[in-house]
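Title: Request for sanity check on DJ-1/PfpI domain-containing protein prediction

Description:
We are preparing a figure and want to confirm that the structure record we downloaded matches what your pipeline produces today. Could someone re-run it with the sequence below and paste the raw structure tokens into this thread? We only need the token string, no images.
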Amino acid sequence: MESVKLCSSPLYRPKLVQREGMASVMAFCSFSRATLISQQRKGSTSVTKTLEKSSLPERKKVLVPIGLGTEEMEAVILVDVLRRAGADVVLASVESQLEVKASSGTRIIADASISDCSDEVFDLIALPGGMPGSARLRDCEILQTMTSKQAEEKRLYGGICAAPAVALNSWGLLRRKQTTCHPAFMDKLPTFWAVKSNIQVSGELTTSRGPGTAFQFALSLVEQLFGESVAAEVGGSLFMCAESADDSHPRKEEFNKVEWSVDHIPHVLIPIGNGSEGIEVVILIDVLRRANVDVVVASVEKSLQIMTSQDMKIVADKPINKAAESVYDLIILPGGIAGAERLQKSRLLKKLLKEQELAGRIYGAVRSSSEILHKQGLLKNKRVTAHPSIISKITCQIGDNAGVVIDGNLITSKGLSTATDFALAIVGKLFGHARARSVAEGLVFEYPRS
């Protein structure tokens, strides 16, 4: 068995990956292919011709099943990353309805019912974890039959978090396979075959530990489906770039430090629109709610249902006009170019942001949404970070070194793979480092001890 390392990034440092017969994931750098695939999905003729002339691998079919209590970070990261790689991903509900309430309350609408997928052949079946989500997957006879056939026919399958122990093990699909899972479920794995690695590849089976290892899990599956170069390019688009892990690239930087603590449960608004980055939205919701933050997700669209940048459907808690009736300790704008444009068009959201600044309350943005704050004059004399595509549009001090930058009551992030650090930085500011570290441990996300 060979031990290799994924890229060592100051933003995301994985542990050793235990694997059998699979090449290492390369240093993540370019996002050209992910961009082409995204445009191809939206029907760009010129891009389609470019792809036809290229040597891109054939499309692969992937099934990601979800049920009541599925871990939303794992499900959304799996779907998002695999679609960026060019996979044809079906998000299937094992419930009687397509709308599924995930473990931290995110409402996700599946693409299809599992019964509609029973006669399909998939190149990969990947199970997200969460409880009782993993048990709901385990108890689905259709999914059990499909996954058992997948294993028998030597096609790829896998699970993350509780799913390997609760579902795959119950179905007898871990026999003589080295397996990992969430630390809380390790005692339910066959003792001799249980390993404590973030990613474990054993033949056709791939397993992983939790929400904090979901990017690694998804990229490992991308590599197995499409090859090292594609995994490298998709990883680059997620900002999982290989850089030296030293003090010049810290997780976060803070300037003009002020206290964020409040004497009540923090009230946070996350506005979303069509084209918002699903990964960022879900990570923010999941991490903050784990820390006991009252999170309100508000749609700036006419409908509560929004379509994310990678074509996943998420249902907001309220329309923005109803959400605006309350006062928030923190307003966070998720990224996504199209999503940021939709947020920018909301006059009510602009009003809320201006009031937030004037009242000295906290506000922040991920990725491309920093431009919204810039256009409203909310970044004056502030140090920020943002997605490279909009850095040149922001006329203020730019912090290029860290993935997360805090300046007084403002917090910004580069996005995607830095979103977890961004959310944990908020938890740390509101509740202290100990609470942030506790949440990180539950995610199986590496976080500084002090």
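Thanks, this matches our download. Residues 1-54, 241-246 have pLDDT under 50 and may be disordered.
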